Amino acid sequence: MDLRKKLKNEITYSNMWPRYPSFLKSLNWTLVWYQILGMVTILLLLLPYLDSPNFPPLLGIVEVLFYIGFFYLLVWNLKHKGRSLWNILWLLLNIFGIGGIIFLCVKNQTQLRKEAEKEKEKEEKEKYTREWKEKFGYKPDNRK
Fold first, then answer.
1. Which residues contact 55 (CB under 8 A, 6 or more apart)?
2. 108 found inside a domain
3. CA distance 38 to 32
4. Does residue 116 belong to any structural domain of this protein?
5. What are the pLDDT digits (tens) for 3-14?
6. At what angle do helices 27-46 and 55-81 cross, to 10 degrees?
7. Cα–Cα distance between 49 and 109 in angstroms, integer?
8. Which residues of the chain have pLDDT under 70?
9. Inter-axis angle of helices 55-81 and 109-136, to 10 degrees?
10. Cα dist from 31 to 58, 100, 137, whole Å
11. Cβ-contact 91, 31 below 8 angstroms
């Protein structure tokens, strides 16, 4: 890998939170769990204030904070997938949730690249083994 590609990969994978391997392996599940756990947390935190006259403004503030965090995770997700931030526009197609589904279907370039490299290494190893066996006349031993 030449220096430019290496630098580009390091810029793409910034020190943005979250950095744990489990989050990086399952980028889409990170978004889904943020939504589920975020909504449950908001519900549990605001339940005591349901009858309060300050409930609507409080709910609005909490929802704005939730969506700021969600937008941050969308950007983080696309950065780690190696994709353009223009893919966030898929979320504008929010007819029956289809925009979110399309967003989650955006392929992870890094995983595709790693899979191709593994396949190439496997083919090279098999080719080398075959050539070695042919060169040295290797014949499997059939003794039991």
1. 46, 49
2. no
3. 10
4. no
5. 555 545 544 455
6. 170
7. 45
8. 1-24, 94-97, 139-144
9. 30
10. 24, 10, 55
11. no
Count of alpha carbons within 13 Å of 140, Cβ hemisphere only? 3
Domain range for 64: 3-84
Q: What would the two tokens of residue 63 be?
A: 């929802």
CB atoms < 10 A from the CB of 25, how many? 11
Residue 35 lies in a domain: yes
Alpha-carbon distance of 74 to 81, in angstroms, equals 11
Rounded to 10 degrees, what is the CA torsion of 16, 45, 60, 65? Answer: -10
Does residue 105 form part of some domain? no
What is the number of structural domains in the chain?
1
pLDDT at 11: 47
